[in-house]
């Protein structure tokens, strides 16, 4: 008799006994209602007034920090040229591909997806409300990337192709990230009286 058959013949009764024991434990647990019960699970009903009050307290605390400039170092996530960048003041970011602004141009980055500080984070849906976060940047330099190699080969076909290319890059320095205005208090929209919406 092979070693594998001997091992299986000794292991089979142990597995059967353990499976019987485990089914006995489950049936005992079911009869004692430890795992399953006929009663529905108790759910906690949240009072909407209390929840609204908690939200207002949080908004008030954030507004106090913003107005007193106590938020410390601020970070932001901005959408720029099809990509997202996490930035703080003084950062230098590289935007790849063709981008029209030239060196020395000052920019205001409008698509702010998220702004955060030490104690709070404001997440936009999809962007933070207009006028709440102001991010300004300056174009430092427009250059080309290092030379990249595009190598193609098909074996046994006498085909080999090598191309060298460089990508345009624009370097931006983030000047300021400011939180101004009040949270949950967007500016009034004007000039839509004569438009059909």
Automatic annotation (TrEMBL):
Matching entries from Pfam families are given as: Ribosomal_L21p (PF00829)
Q: How is this protein named in the record?
A: Large ribosomal subunit protein bL21m
| Oxidoreductase keyword on record | no
Q: Name one GO cellular component term.
A: ribosome
Could you say which protein family the record assigns here? Belongs to the bacterial ribosomal protein bL21 family.
| Keywords recorded for this protein, A-Z | Ribonucleoprotein, Ribosomal protein
């Amino acid at each position: 008799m092979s070693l594998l058959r001997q091992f299986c013949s000794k292991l089979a009764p142990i597995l059967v006994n353990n499976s019987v024991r485990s089914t006995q434990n489950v049936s005992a647990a079911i009869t004692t209602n430890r795992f399953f019960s006929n009663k529905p699970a108790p759910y906690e009903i949240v009072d909407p007034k209390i929840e609204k009050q908690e939200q207002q307290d949080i908004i008030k605390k954030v507004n106090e920090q913003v107005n007193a400039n106590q938020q410390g170092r601020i970070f932001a996530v901005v959408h720029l040229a099809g990509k997202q960048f996490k930035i703080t003041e003084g950062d230098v970011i590289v935007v790849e591909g063709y981008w029209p602004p030239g060196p020395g141009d000052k920019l205001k980055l409008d698509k702010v997806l998220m702004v955060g500080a030490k104690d709070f984070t404001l997440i936009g849906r999809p962007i933070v409300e207009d006028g709440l976060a102001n991010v300004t940047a300056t174009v430092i330099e427009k250059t080309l990337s290092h030379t990249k190699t595009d190598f193609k080969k098909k074996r046994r076909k006498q085909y080999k192709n090598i191309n060298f290319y460089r990508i345009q890059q624009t370097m931006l320095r983030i000047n300021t990230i400011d939180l101004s205005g009040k949270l949950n208090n967007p500016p009034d929209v004007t000039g839509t009286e004569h438009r059909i919406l």
